[in-house]
Design goal:
It holds the Pfam family ABC_tran. With 183 residues, this protein is an alpha+beta fold. It folds into 2 domains: 68 residues, P-loop containing nucleotide triphosphate hydrolases (Rossmann fold, 3-Layer(aba) Sandwich), CATH 3.40.50; 110 residues, Rossmann fold (3-Layer(aba) Sandwich).
């Protein structure tokens, strides 16, 4: 499903990753463990096209991601970032609903709102759905981003440090949820 073939990634002249090969099949859950600053986030950023490879290719279902239109790639890959900050005053529900953007032509339809609400319920954050995203804690923001990824209905969900900022109870909940999503 996902293949990184001999990729080299650099920030300017600084090589971050060199000659990386990785294949991930559908339904697999993988964990990347390496020291801080070793390039895990850079690898993830190549998958969603935020960082271009200097060498090599990244493919999804045998299609080079650099040949995909941004909307096509957004319909295939959902990323839950390690950190997410915004200055906009969106409510939590609207943040989750924004995951439906690649499917919305003009205005969200009833089905888009239902999918956003379903994701909110699956993650268990109904209690904050009407709060402003900028007014909730870091752990709650992580849960909102996970709900947003679920609402996106992508074949691929990449979570960058999914348990960061979460208390133990929510860490367990998120790990169980990840298992259920892939099963």
């Amino acid at each position: 499903m996902i293949r990184f073939r001999d990729i080299t990634v650099a920030y300017g002249k600084d090589i971050i990753l060199e000659n990386v090969n990785l294949e991930i099949e559908q339904g697999e859950i993988i964990t990347l463990l390496d020291p801080n600053g070793s390039g895990k986030t850079a690898l993830i950023s190549t998958l969603n096209g935020f960082i271009k490879t200097v060498k090599g290719s990244v493919t999804i279902d045998n299609k080079d991601i650099l040949k995909m239109k941004p909307e096509e790639l957004a319909r295939r890959v959902a990323i839950v970032p390690q950190f997410h900050n915004t200055s906009s005053d969106f409510k939590v529900f609207d943040m989750v609903l924004s995951g439906r953007t690649p499917y919305i032509e003009y205005m969200p339809e009833k089905s888009d709102r239902e999918k956003a609400m379903d994701a909110i319920q699956r993650v268990g954050i109904e209690y904050i759905k009407d709060k402003k995203y900028t007014r909730i804690g870091g752990g709650e923001r992580k849960l909102v981003m996970i709900a947003r990824a679920i609402a996106q209905e992508r074949k691929i969900i990449v979570l960058n440090e999914p348990a960061t900022y979460l208390d133990l109870e929510n860490q367990i909940k998120v790990l169980k949820l990840i298992y259920v999503i892939v099963s």
